[in-house]
Amino acid sequence: MTELLPNYFGGQWSHGTGTGSTLVDPVLGTPLVRVDATGLDLAAGFAFARDTGGAALRALNYRERAALLGAAVKVLQANRDAYYEIATANSGTVKNDSAVDIDGGIFTLGTYAKLGESLGERHHLVDADMVRLGKDPLFQSQHVLVPTRGVALLINAFNFPSWGLWEKAAPALLSGVPVIVKPGTATAWLTQRMVQDVVNAGIFPPGALSIVCGSSAGLLDALQPLDVMSFTGSAETAHQVRLHAAVSQRSVRVNIEADSLNSAYLLPGEDASSAAFGLLVKEVAREMTVKSGQKCTAIRRVFVPEALYDAAAQAIGARLASTTVGNPRNESVRMGALVNRAQMTSVRQGLQQLQTQADTLYDGANTPLVDADPAIACCVGPTLLGARNADAADVVHAMEVFGPVATLLPYRSGTHALELIRRGQGSLVASIYGSDPQALADAALALADSHGRVHSISPDVAASQTGHGNVMPQSLHGGPGRAGGGEELGGLRALGFYHRRSAVQASTSVLSLLRTSDAAPTV
């Protein structure tokens, strides 16, 4: 039987008492390890994190907590080779795709270590200036931010076992809030190994960093009113989270990232020979194939002027045709596997639904696999669809296929394009391609109300732009509506989720002390 990975909970390593779930190599089909959380004393583990881990973190100032993040970065960098091996085996990703997750997670952690250093030796944050409450300036109001005296439950998706961990844990730990991580089961091995390495290095106080692998049953039941939860996953599961008593009755603060029909938009006035057209084509093909399209930020809908529909279809198809698919251990392979058979079935079924309203412009089903058995490997070639009547393609604007699939859609005017993009009902990101700065600025503001991030690309930033789907810790990640309504990252803005804002009304002399004091909380 395969190795059963231990959980780190309640300040100790422990194994679940059940048989657990077996993690499988999605290319070779071989069993890897097992994860299980059966039998854990959830109430005791949450209490230990809250009381022991939380108190120890709050006793440190922001600069001291930042130093802990920096120490964790060094541990993770020293073990990168092992993480890449795990990612290849468990996620089926090629090296470049593994880097997006592994190095992206470490970079994000390092970014928050640097941001925390800038906060100095304070134990609380001041929010804006003092405000008079009357004519007499003696009595005023000062808003302050203090770390919540709860625990942060981080429920992550399978597609980013490293980045999903650290983009949530970094701002929480920097804020002084202990975290309990529940990784996506299918790829939990990498998350567990990273946490194990950091815990064994003795960097964080006991109870500050915990991990529970396996079923999430009972985790939400253990949440108390001052706890917070950050969830990344499907809209269906997000709906169940919102209905849970922890959220609906105990008012646990929750951040949700769910489905997202992200768009790429070529502005009017461009032609097939323009640099902007070429940039869109390149980015669409890249976003379809990075991590086999298993990215919350991947491009799902592509909008081009009607006159460029055929040219765009040919250009994107030509790029996809050069993408080799198969075993990530083979250096000639550029796109690996979907995470498991269930995900492959889901992608194929979703593709069939989209094909009821869209034509197949480039058929990934014809892609030969390199060094992989199609009867075993969870590999699906990239597929570009197209719907000439974008208004009638209801399913294209309503359903996300979480794989290497995108749909090309023509528009009649800029106004029509914006209307079509907004039919996604809120997304994580839209990218805009054009050469006119004013048109790019206007389109960005027009889409800002329905997108957490607008990635505006002109030829002058072609070499320096960070990519449509690359989430940078300095910028906000999240989106309104269908995308879940949440916000993560955005530099120091991320700390707000893990702090409580309070208005202190007092004498100006008292408030002045609040603005300058570095003292730790007395209790």
Topology, please?
Layout: E1 3-4, E2 7-9, E3 12-14, E4 21-24, E5 31-35, H1 42-58, H2 62-78, H3 80-91, H4 95-117, E6 125-132, E7 139-147, E8 152-155, H5 163-175, E9 179-182, H6 188-200, E10 209-211, E11 228-232, H7 235-243, H8 245-248, E12 253-257, E13 262-266, H9 275-289, E14 299-305, H10 309-321, E15 325-326, H11 341-354, E16 359-362, E17 369-370, E18 383-386, E19 405-411, H12 414-422, E20 427-433, H13 437-448, E21 451-457, E22 476-479, E23 486-489, E24 499-507, H14 508-516
Parallel strand pairs: 1-5, 8-9, 8-11, 9-10, 11-12, 13-14, 13-20, 14-19, 15-17, 18-19, 20-21
Antiparallel strand pairs: 2-3, 4-5, 6-7, 7-24, 16-18, 22-23
Helix pairs in contact: 2-4, 2-5, 3-4, 3-6, 4-5, 9-10
Q: How would you portray this structure in words?
A:
- The chain is α/β, with parallel strands linked by helices.
- The chain folds into two domains: about 5-260 and about 485-515, Aldehyde Dehydrogenase, Chain A, domain 1 (3-Layer(aba) Sandwich); about 260-475, 3-Layer(aba) Sandwich (Aldehyde Dehydrogenase, Chain A, domain 2).
- It has 14 helices and 24 strands.
- The protein has helices at about 40-60, 60-80, 80-90, 95-115, 165-175, 190-200, 235-245, 245-250, 275-290, 310-320, 340-355, 415-420, 435-450, 510-515; strands spanning about 5, 5-10, 10-15, 20-25, 30-35, 125-130, 140-145, 150-155, 180, 210, 230, 255, 260-265, 300-305, 325, 360, 370, 385, 405-410, 425-435, 450-455, 475-480, 485-490, 500-505.
- The strands form seven sheets. The chain has a seven-stranded mixed sheet, sandwiched between helices.
- The longest helix has 23 residues, at about 95-115.
- It starts with a strand and ends in a 7-residue tail after the last helix.
- About 55% of the residues are buried.
- The model has no long low-confidence stretch (mean pLDDT about 95).
